[in-house]
Target: Arginine transporter
Amino acid sequence: MTDTEKLADQLLAQERRALARAITLVESGRADHREAAQALLDRVAGHGKQAIRIGLSGTPGVGKSTFIEAFGMMLTGMGLRVAVLAVDPSSARSGGSILGDKTRMERLSREPGAFIRPSPSQTHLGGVARRTREAVTLCEAAGFNVVLIETVGVGQSETVVSEMCDLFLLLLAPAGGDELQGVKRGIMEIADLILVNKADGELKSAATRTCSDYSGALRLLRKRPQDPEGFPKAMMVSALQDEGLKAAWDEMNALIDWRRENGHFDARREAQARYWFGEEVKRGLMAQLETPEARALMEEGAEDVAAGRTVPSVAAQSVLDRLSVSKD
Ligand SMILES: Nc1nc2c(ncn2[C@@H]2O[C@H](COP(=O)(O)OP(=O)(O)O)[C@@H](O)[C@H]2O)c(=O)[nH]1
Ligand SMILES: [Mg+2]
Model:
């Protein structure tokens, strides 16, 4: 038995240490590690359980870590196994999203039924996306029931996360006055549930207002085929006081049950698999331009068009032809 086969077996036997090692393997940039990672993923694909994959986004300070801790504790209390991953392309600069505030998830990180993995220090979103997607597969193989994928509200990371989860939660803080916090329309459109956090104490009335503002805004969006009546919806929670979390979980389950019954759940996963397959092919093609031979061809073509000896499309076709010839 090879090491990879052994690791696959340990993973399927739900050994946490094996999961940590497997994720380290998919995060590695070394060519031999990548090969082992591919073999591992191929071996565990289709085994294990189908977890509920939940994306969670929100700007810094809105209460993501506090929410994950309280929500995760509630789920483990129900006997569910919960994995927490992060997509944070800025983590190299900001010092890590989950790791930075591990103190806020202290209880959850000690739970035997929980697994928390901070974002690797990689700045490239593409790399983080692949690693997270593959980590989700590994978590499912290791029998986790719920996989939470946290992302900070920057750039394209929400779109990336929504392409790898079944449900997308947007966490907001109560707004002062009547501004809609400048939440981008694109993010509103991918949210399945908006949770207005910090609905407690002095912030309660502001939270109530914010929640009704967003309920109104959601009703104005175009109806999506994957939603039953009443979704997407906004609701209030208090991660700190542990309020509304059970109600939120019930809504998530109601939505997932409906989507399963109506074929949307599987259809979405299929579409996601197709999408990432296409992305990987493109990525592989791009990587072929990074070899020394390809770089030389590119340089040569660039010189030719710059000097007016030929036009860009012709020079490009010549490079592509020579690249595919040099492959076989
Ligand atoms: N009042 C109140 N404060 C909260 C709540 N959730 C989080 N906070 C506070 O908001 C701050 C930021 O929380 P954190 O979880 O670190 O936010 P993150 O940056 O989104 O991960 C901390 O001081 C938390 O104690 C809540 O439900 N109610
Ligand atoms: Mg945090």
Q: What stands out?
A: The chain has three domains: 1-47, 48-262, 289-327. The radius of gyration is 22 Å.
